[in-house]
Amino acid sequence: MPKMKTHKSTSKRFRRTQGGKGLLMRTKQGKSHLRRNKKARAKRLFDEMLVVESKGVQDRVQILAPYLREKGK
Q1: Rounded to an integer, what distance in angstroms lies between the CA atom of residue 50 and that of residue 1?
Q2: pLDDT at 39
Q3: Is 72 a member of any domain?
Q4: Structural domain harbouring 36
Q5: CB proximity list for 6: less than 8 A, separation 6 or greater
Q6: Which residues does residue 70 pair with via DSSP β-bridges, in sequence order?
Q7: In this structure, what CATH number is given to the domain that contains residue 38?
Q8: How far is CA 7 from CA 26, 37, 52, in A?
Q9: What is the total count of domains within the chain?
Q10: Residue 70 lies in a domain
Q11: Phi/psi at 26 (nearest 5 deg)?
Q12: What is the reported pTM?
């Protein structure tokens, strides 16, 4: 069976956590531009990664990026 293609923007937006659980993590939106107008605290909060809670989003990411790996591997 041939390898499945990975949706590249999905693979850049999501990561799996290291360890046994392998939770799906996402970055916050609104981080890429118009940062000059934001306070320093708001800019710092953009660096956090959040756990994806929605089962529907997790299933969709699994389809789009079947080989999504843990960060650092």
Answers
A1: 34
A2: 93
A3: no
A4: 8-64
A5: 64, 65, 66, 67, 68
A6: 16
A7: 4.10.410
A8: 15, 32, 18
A9: 1
A10: no
A11: -135, 160
A12: 0.76
- Pick from 8, 46, 11, 7: which is nearest to 29 by CA? 46
Per-residue confidence of the chain (73 residues) as pLDDT tens digits? 888 999 999 999 999 998 878 899 998 888 888 888 999 999 999 999 999 999 999 999 999 999 987 665 5
Residue listed under structure tokens 């999905």: 10
Instruction: Report if residue 40 sits inside a domain.
Output: yes
pLDDT of residue 33: 86
Exposure of 68 by Cβ count < 10 A (0-12 exposed, 13-18 middle, 19+ buried)? middle
Measured distance CA(34)–CA(13) in Å, rounded: 19
Strands (E) across the chain are located at 14-16, 24-27, 49-51
Tell me the one-letter amino acid at 61.
V
- The answer to whether residue 2 is domain-embedded is no
CB 16 within 8 A of CB 71: yes
